[in-house]
Amino acid sequence: MSKLTPDDLVRGHLDGVYALALRLTGNASDAWDLTQESMLRAIRFLPGFRGECAASTWLYRITVNTWKNRSASAPSRWWSRLVPLEAAVDGAGAAAPDAVDPAPGPETAAHDSDQREEVQIALAALPPEDRAALQLRELEDKSYEEIATILEVPVGTVKSRLHRARRKLCEALRQYERYGS
Amino acid sequence: MNAMDHDRLKENLSAFVDGELSADERRELKAHVAGCPGCARELQELQGVSSAVRAHGEEHAPAALGASILREAGRERGSADRYRASLVRAAAVLAAAAVLLVFLGNRFKPKLVDLVGGFVSGWSPATAAVGATKAP
Asked: CATH assignment of A6-176, given 3.90.580.10, 1.20.120.80, 2.30.33.40, 1.10.10.10?
């Protein structure tokens, strides 16, 4: 296997890592930090990467681990826990406003952008691990086996988590009454 | 079909959408869906939600993020290189000092041995005692 460079990692996998980080943290600012920290760790570990799995799988696993470590050792970030609380008080299924990525360009048609917003809001209402599983399945085309490796859970858990996540999304999207078009 | 079988098959609908069932499981589920309107509807919904996420869930990293990571990685590597270089320098200085010590040691060993040897041989408890009594 040819040697991967830090440039290869950033060029080939930045969007994927950022998208996963966004699903895990739920907001763009924490996603930036998590992506940066995970990528830097990966670059440090790069000489030890032997290509036992796809580079993306390896990177996503580092991202999930970094996220778990950050959430476990974040006493100084106690205020961050208040944000989901406020969102929950606002109403069932209401997402934190910053959970919706403001990045996409204005060229998308209005209907498309409505649908996109609905999907993003519905996704934001799911637990982080469910969002991550969906992201890896739908947008990264990872197999259940790979998702299990990345999230460090049994394959059976991946299967039930995806099923539960899609059921909840169905219900949320049905509420918008545009779903199915 | 009993309710337990029905629930088990229903739980498999998502894995069916993902192409994660074995050939036998697929066959069994297809046969069930053909005769169960509830599961057929749910399958359709799951497929719909899957394509909605695929179509609208894409995210792109902010343009500045990649550059920021590579800059930071370069800085880290720079300081690691500087640390390595300073270790190499320290090792070189130590090695030079060791070589110098060995050289000096070899060159002056005979004189040192003579000096120390002469001092030791000139000293005895008797002379030391005489020296001690003479002193006052």
From this structure: 1.10.10.10
